[in-house]
Structure formats: structure tokens, C-alpha cells
Specification:
By secondary structure, the protein is of the alpha/beta class. The chain has a domain of about 60 residues: TPP-binding domain (Rossmann fold). It has 3 helices and 3 strands; from the N terminus they run αβαββα. A 3-stranded parallel sheet has the order 1-2-3. Helix 2 links the parallel strand 1 and strand 2. Helix 1 runs parallel beside helix 2. The longest helix has 13 residues. The mean pLDDT is about 85.
Length: about 110
């Protein structure tokens, strides 16, 4: 991150456009190929862990429906309960991920 007031680094190829991190910011669309590959993976999953989200931002939130529709067990882990009950999750796991995830691993492996 450049210091406040410093010019932004520019693209090394064109030298004109500012560089930006390889992330998708809120309000931007995910690349279609990324969404397609995520949906394919969700259809093939036996288990889907959804960690740290309210479950209302699409298309990512729709992956729960895709995985559950294909028979996957979906565990929803978040510090706050989802804004709406999710019919595909037998029991949302509320709490900090650093506590909930080890408990899920222990339960799954014992």
C-alpha cells in the first residue's frame, strides 16, 4: 500500500493504468469462469464448509443450494446466525471459526 498522498503504482505493461490487487470488491461481479468452476466443485462436494459469511451475498451464497441439492452436508460457521434459516443446514454452527472448526474436525474424526 503506498503511503498516503503517494502516487499509485501503474501497470508495468501500459504504464498508464493504476495497479489494483487481484480481488473482487463489494459490488463487483466475480469472473464468470470462477463462478462456473465453484458451482462445479459444489456439485461434486460431499461436505461444504461455509465460514465467515452472513449467507446473503450472491453468487457465493448460492453455492450452499448447489451443494445441498447434490446431497452434500453443509456446515454454516459464522459468529452471528445467518439472517435467515437455511433449509439445507441441519444446524448452523455459531461462534468464532477458530473455535468451531476444530470442534467440527474433532466430531468428524472421532
Amino acid at each position: 500500500m503506498p503511503a498516503e498522498g503517494a502516487p499509485l503504482p501503474t501497470c508495468p505493461q501500459c504504464g498508464r493504468h493504476p495497479l489494483r490487487p487481484a480481488i473482487v470488491l463489494f459490488g463487483e461481479n466475480l469472473p464468470a469462469e470462477v463462478v462456473h468452476r465453484a458451482e462445479q466443485a459444489a456439485r461434486l462436494a460431499d461436505v461444504l464448509l461455509v465460514v465467515g459469511t452472513s449467507g446473503i451475498v450472491y453468487p457465493a451464497a448460492g453455492l450452499v443450494e448447489v451443494a445441498a441439492g447434490a446431497g452434500a452436508y453443509c456446515a454454516l460457521v459464522n459468529t452471528e446466525p445467518w439472517g435467515h434459516p437455511h433449509p439445507t443446514s441441519p444446524r448452523p454452527c455459531s461462534g468464532p471459526a477458530e473455535e468451531v472448526l476444530p470442534a467440527l474436525v474433532t466430531a468428524a474424526t472421532s
